[in-house]
Design goal:
Length: 308
């Protein structure tokens, strides 16, 4: 099976590529903006016609879209997430390859949800920020494209190579600095939020499963269990061997007060709680998460410790 992977240089894309390369039945081609891509192409500025001609030449059976942006101005997010997806869908419609599309969505498309609830795929999507809006628009384009397509709505990916700007990445970096400087206490803000953290390697397994499945529509990818960021911080401190005191700053969920380097914001527009209903992934993909948060945190700390 020939697979075309878009966004292979990104956080999720790198692990998806590793997973696919481990499958001897897969012939992988990476397309993207980076120099490491097999083929250079920018979805946000390239023409559907040019991409369609490439698809006709390569003739993939599956196209996986991990490309996009998580930060930037509203116009940048729309360009890289929404316009880019529109270009991809149009190129697939023009192409004769009839490839299946596996598109990576995100939990920010749902927006704030009721505390204690598990959000299912049929929930009304009400994103609370520009990123979620741009991703929801991309999802709607995929679902309305008429293509053989599936959208994996990924919750909070974590584990190896977790971006430094993410909540768990910033926690690890704050602990690393505290240990380097011999700080006896660490003040952290924004630890009240609860998120469904799913290991990035499990996400890659879900993408692989989606390439082999006939399932269509939206499918949540998460663990089905929300974890308070405060509890993750305590676990990370224990894993790191930090013996100082952790003091939580009072304030709103996004951790606005306190020293900027020690604040752990979650500006995803999802409010204080988010937890996936993962029954559809189990029933239609035969997938469930395998890697626990403790293992993910240990991998995050191992990489942070290497910078000490």
């Amino acid at each position: 099976m020939r697979v075309l992977l878009l966004g292979a240089a990104g956080y999720l894309g790198r692990f998806v590529a590793d997973r696919l390369l481990a499958d001897p039945a897969v012939q992988l081609t990476a397309l993207g903006r980076s120099d490491d891509a097999d083929v250079r192409f920018d979805l946000s500025t390239g023409s559907p016609g040019a991409l369609a001609r490439f698809l006709d030449a390569v003739h993939p059976g599956v196209v996986i879209n991990c490309a996009g942006a998580i930060r930037g101005t509203a116009s940048e997010l729309v360009r890289h997430n929404t316009v880019a997806t529109a270009t991809l869908c149009e190129s697939l419609r023009r192409s004769s390859c009839r490839a299946r599309l596996v598109h990576i969505g995100c939990a920010a498309e749902y927006g704030p949800t009721q505390s204690g609830s598990s959000v299912a795929e049929d929930a009304l999507a009400r994103p609370g920020g520009p990123y979620g809006v741009s991703k929801l628009a991309a999802t709607e384009l995929v679902l309305g494209s008429g293509l053989d397509a599936i959208v994996l709505r990924v919750f909070s990916p974590t584990g190896p190579a977790t971006p430094a700007g993410s909540p768990l990445g910033r926690l690890a970096d704050a602990l690393r600095r505290a240990m380097q400087h011999g700080e006896a206490e660490l003040k952290l803000g924004g630890l009240g939020v609860q998120r469904d953290f799913v290991d990035v390697r499990d996400v890659a397994r879900a993408v692989h499963a989606a390439t082999l499945s006939a399932a269509q529509g939206v499918i949540n990818i998460g663990t089905g269990h929300a974890v308070r960021l405060r509890d993750a911080a305590l676990s990370l401190a224990r894993i790191s061997g930090y013996t100082g005191a952790l003091h939580e700053l009072d304030g709103p969920p996004h951790g606005l007060p306190g020293p900027p380097s020690h604040v752990v914001p979650y500006p995803d527009g999802c409010g204080a709680w988010q937890q996936a209903d993962v029954r559809t992934a189990r029933d239609r993909l035969g997938w469930r998460s395998r890697i626990g948060l403790e293992e993910s945190l240990a991998d995050i700390w191992m990489e942070a410790a290497c910078r000490m």
